[in-house]
Amino acid sequence: MNQEELQKLTEKISRDYFQRPFLHMVKINRRMTTTGGRYHLDDHHIEINAHFLEEKNQKYLVGIIKHELCHYHLHLVGLGYKHKDRDFKILLRRVGGSRYAPDIGLRRSKKYKYLYVCENCGLKYPRMRRINTIRYRCGKCKGRLRLARVF
Question: The pTM is what?
Fold first, then answer.
């Protein structure tokens, strides 16, 4: 799906579900990883995560567009457009938009540098930073920690 097709789809969803025209731009954002889309308050354009335009993830696309259009239409008419606002929750439920972006495996997994192991119970503590093994003990059995591996 390209930019023009996405624009037409968004305009159609806006007319069909909100009975209002979508008069601004929809852009494709290839850098998004944790969100499905974003509505910009300043110039009213909507950005959609490019990964949801792929064929295997398009089943989530309409729900994401509806979610962003809820922000868009509520903001333009002066009602509560934030996630916590009652107006937003009611409209999102009415049009059937997705509340959260589904996890499609784009979130970066943390790479730990250090692995500490308890000498008593063997519990593992993966850490990004070094810790003082004299000062800190195992949270389960209060045993001593030792540095087992540096990645």
Answer: 0.72
3-state DSSP assignment of residue 129 = coil
Of 81, 71, 65, 74, whose CA–CA distance to 8 is shortest? Answer: 65
Nearest to 52, CA basis, from 13, 8, 105: 105
Is residue 5 part of the annotated active site? The answer reads no
Cα dihedral 31→32→33→39 (10° resolution): 180
- Here the tokens at position 45 are 């354009």
* Rounded Cα gap, residues 6 and 11, in angstroms: 9
Angle at the Cα of 89 from the Cα atoms of 20 and 86, rounded to 5 degrees:
105
Angle (deg, nearest 10), helices 86-95 and 61-77: 140
Distance of alpha carbon 106 from alpha carbon 85, whole angstroms: 28
For 21, half-sphere exposure in the C-beta direction (CA atoms, 13 angstrom radius) is 2
Active-site option among 5, 47, 68, 119: 68
Question: Which residues have CB under 8 Å from 29's CB, separation 6+?
Answer: 38, 47, 48, 49, 50
pLDDT tens-digit readout, 33-68: 889 999 999 999 999 999 999 999 889 999 999 999
